[in-house]
Every structure is written in C-alpha cells, then in structure tokens.
Amino acid sequence: MSILDVQIPEYGTTVRNRFLRHSHWTKPVPFLACSFGVNVVLVTSDNKLVVCRRSEAVGSRPGEFTLSANEGLSREIDSDGSSPPDLYACALRGLNEELGVSRYEVTSLDILAFFVDMKLYQWGCIAVARLEGGFADMRRRAPSAIKDRFENDEICPVEFTPRDVVRYVFDQSRRDHWYDGALVGFY
Questions:
Q1: Residues 63 and 151 in one domain
Q2: What local confidence, expressed as pLDDT, does residue 111 receive?
Q3: pLDDT exceeding 70 applies to what percent of the chain?
Q4: What total of structural domains would you count in the chain?
Q5: CB of 158 within 8 A of CB of 48?
Q6: Contact 143/102 with Cβ under 8 angstroms?
Q7: Same domain, 21 and 48
Q8: Which of these, 115, 126, 143, 148, could form a disulfide with 97 (CB 3.0-4.6 Å)?
Q9: Which domain holds residue 14?
Q10: Do 4 and 81 belong to one domain?
Q11: Are residue 14 and residue 93 in the same domain, yes or no?
C-alpha cells in the first residue's frame, strides 16, 4: 500500500483522495511537490553492481532493496546560491555520504532518466556511475568514509551481467522488497 493511500483520521480520507484526486502526475500539487531525488546505480571496475538494502531507521522506503545511492536534492548544498541545484553534484554527494566514494574515484556519471514515484509522490532521476576501483577496495575503505552509515543495512556486490542481476532481483528473499526505481535503474 502506498503512503498516499493511508487513512488520515483528521481528514476522514487519504492524502490521495483529499489532495490528488483531480491532479495529474505531470502537474505537481505545489505544497506536496517538495522532493526531488537523485538515484545512482554504481558499477565498480571489477564489474560489480552495488546494491543496497535500506535500514529501518530511514523515513523513505525502510527495509527495501534499492540502487547504490539515493540522495535528496538540496538548493543549499548542491548549488552555489545563484544557480539551480546541480544534479551531478547531488549524485556525487550521495555516493560519498552513503558509500564513502570520493568524486575523484568516479570515472563517469550519466543521468539516464527522470521519473515520478507514484507511491510517495516524489520526483527524481536515475544516474549510472562507474568507479575507478573494485568493490572490495571500496568496502575496505567504507567504514571510515561513510558519513550516513545508518541509511543502509546491507551493501552487496552483484556481478553486472543480465543473468546475475535478474537472479539477484528475483531471489525469493528479495523479490517483493524492491524500490521500483531500482529495477528501472538496473535495466
């Protein structure tokens, strides 16, 4: 069930019915349209896809499996104050804060798609980044480099081949616990 479909006692209805019933996803409701996220798929030099399982301590999608990094765009952090926020700066910040990856280790970063998350009414983009080093090296440095350690309970390497990614995604223990955007990003 989407958070938008949970009954709100003081309104006697759901957020979706009260505020979004006559809206179309292409025309955001201003007071709800406050979140834009940059979601990054990271592939290491040894061809490992970095997959994370979010911790129960996070407010958005706790316990779900997701992409390598998920970061909210911030005008204060991802902009010089005189220009719009930089999606690439946000992606690099997310990789650093959640995985301990320095911007200097990223050999490429491409934004692939924009999306609307219909469950949580959020907008965002999906990017793919390539890491200069291998997965083991990244994990060896991670404990001292990760600022936001509380966000992920697991950081897993998956061989970045269609067969291995599909097997991982559809494994019985994970099959129904994915953030939808992760599957789009992996594709």
A1: yes
A2: 95
A3: 85
A4: 2
A5: yes
A6: no
A7: no
A8: 148
A9: 1-27
A10: no
A11: no
C-alpha distances out from residue 130 to 40, 70, 95, 118, 122, Å: 10, 16, 11, 29, 26
- Cα–Cα distance measured from residue 47 to residue 175, given in angstroms and rounded to the nearest whole number: 23
> Sign of dihedral through CA atoms 42, 45, 49, 54?
negative
The residues, ordered by sequence, that sit 6+ positions from 36 with a Cβ below 8 Å of its Cβ are: 72, 73, 122, 123, 124, 125
Q: Which residues contact 25 (CB under 8 A, 6 or more apart)?
A: 116, 118
CA–CA gap between residue 181 and residue 168 (Å, rounded)? 16
Same domain, 42 and 14: no
pLDDT at residue 38, rounded to an integer: 92
SS3 94: helix
Two structure tokens written together for 117: 């998350």
Question: What are the Cα distances from residue 3, in Å, to 7, 18, 73, 92, 104?
Answer: 9, 13, 21, 29, 38
- Cβ-Cβ contacts under 8 Å for 146 (sequence gap 6 or more): 97, 98, 99, 100
Q: Which residues are CB-contacts of 38 (< 8 A; sequence separation ≥ 6)? A: 70, 71, 72, 73, 87, 90, 91, 94, 124, 125, 127
pTM of the model: 0.79
- Shared-domain flag, residues 83 and 1: no
Angle at 19 between CA 13 and CA 22, to 5 degrees: 110
